[in-house]
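User: For my dataset I need records formatted as: sequence, then structure tokens, nothing else. Please produce one.
Assistant:
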Amino acid sequence: MAAAPVFFPSSVVVSVYRAHGYAFSCSSLLSQLPAIKLSSYRPTRTDHTAITLLPNSNRIASRLQAMQSPTFEVNGDGKTEEVEKLQKGIAEFYDESSGIWEEIWGDHMHHGFYDPGTTVSLADHRTAQIRMIEEALRFASVSDDPMKKPKRIVDVGCGIGGSSRYFARKYDAECKGITLSPVQAKRAQALAVAEGLQGTVSFEVADALAQPFPHGQFDLVWSMESGEHMPDKEKFVRELVRVAAPGATIIIVTWCHRDLSPSEHSLKPQEQKLLNKICDSYYLPAWCSTADYVKILESLFLEDIKRADWSEYVAPFWPAVIRSALTWKGFTSLIRSGWKTIKGAMVMPLMIEGFKKDVIKFSVITCRKPE
């Protein structure tokens, strides 16, 4: 009789079976790995991976079980209560704050890319946000050649659709954007119609961890500053890879914490305390490092993996956001917007502190899905 499969979280399976070591310490299990047979990946409601245990491997099963994260109630859609609460907070935060952002900063809801040490005006900041898009495309070697340029693009965590509309014009491409915020999706679509792009750009409310698209649909998968909101980084990356067509480029621009040294198992307590304060106001789950992202990509056999720290190139951004909040227009808009936006404004100095102390890194990670 065939052994019954036992289900464990995918992150545990990858950590133990491939011995990458991120998030778990599993060196003591390496000598016993031959007793574990990894079955083909079969996603379930809770995104667990099946392991078929061979004879005399109960002890391994119990040790794997002990390595799991605390369990939570799983709802009918496969989400834990904790994830549902987080995503509800994210949606409400952006429902509340997107209007004030657009009014002051325009339709690109992300950092700008600046030459180090420069002094810039608000108009320069908007130019810098476009430059951020172009620099990320250049870093990933996305071609402008009419025969090679992307034709189908997904914007994961699209905000009010600034990147999507930019791509539609730049590449004459079909773009789809997803966001947790109904207010953002509605505004993004309205702007697309106003710009005559309704035939090529569309937006919807959807979960980046369970994207509403078939496998292999897009030849450019774009995530600009949305990864930091993802409670399961491995599942997030798996979804980016799943919807990518063979040969597609994947671009992740995101906030990370610094890489840990070989002797470290976690951030220092004062560093973690700083990040926790930011998480509370911006509805962020636990942070990861750029190295963590790279390990996930390597485990999925992605090609041409590249990474860079662009922290010095975004340094003028947060001081500029604070200055805009202290203008009369910014202050009155902030008060009208609501408590979640006010809380976010109050921790902006902590973002500056995190960058200055090298705890926070502004990271770009790119790769290509094999043909």
